[in-house]
Amino acid sequence: MNKSSVGEVVVSSLKTCTTCGITKLPTEFHGVGSDSNLSRASCKVCTRANNKARSKTKPKKRKHVRYFWTRERKHQFKIKILLSLEEKRQDRNLRNRYGISLREYRDLFETQNGVCAICGRGAGKRNLHVDHCHKTGRIRALLCSNCNSTLGKVRDDINILNKLIEYLGKHQNASPTPLT
């Protein structure tokens, strides 16, 4: 085995820096990862100089930027976040229940001018309900809660609705009987 040593260090264990070209001890190089046998190609001095030069050319990142929130900004931010979360929730519910998106619901709402398809009343505080056929799943129109629940109670049966109409017609002109 051919050993030419400089002091106690074996010459074969020396490493040459790729940046400055100087041959140095392995301790003059940063290690790579958790493997102690691997080291970087550039020595510690050259790596430090390269990092310093690079930091001068790149703009410094601000680590802590203070953003002063006014009450108005906080309120606007909360409303923006809450609205987007509420819209996402509405969209998800409409897709899961009826297979339509929030945009399709809004198009239908605009087509009906924002009123119930049966009674013509506006939506009020609550949205109009999506009326659909329970047998086919086909969407019919948007209804107010009263009309929607009425259809649900008669189970979409036209015969029951006709009997209701007859009943109301029969008792419409009759004088009220006092309750004793």
If you had to describe this structure to a student in words, what would you say it looks like?
It contains five helices and eight strands; from the N terminus they run ββββββαααββαα. Strand 1 and strand 2 (9-10) form a beta hairpin. Residues 1-5 have low confidence and may be disordered. It folds into two domains: 14-53; 72-169, His-Me finger endonuclease fold. The chain has helices at 44-57, 71-98, 102-111, 145-153, 158-172, and strands spanning 5-6, 9-10, 15-16, 23-24, 29-32, 35-43, 129-132, 139-143. The protein is an alpha+beta fold.
Q: What topology does this entry show?
A:
Layout: E1 5-6, E2 9-10, E3 15-16, E4 23-24, E5 29-32, E6 35-43, H1 44-57, H2 71-98, H3 102-111, E7 129-132, E8 139-143, H4 145-153, H5 158-172
Give me a quick take on this structure.
With 180 residues, the chain is an alpha+beta fold. The chain has five helices and eight strands. The chain folds into two domains: 14-53; 72-169, 3-Layer(aba) Sandwich (His-Me finger endonuclease fold), CATH 3.40.1800.10.
**Structural class, judged by helices and strands?**
alpha+beta
Spans of at least 5 consecutive residues whose pLDDT stays below 50 are 1-5
With strands numbered from the N-terminus, the spatial order across the biggest sheet is 1-2
For the termini, the CA-CA separation is 124 Å
- The overall pLDDT average reads 81
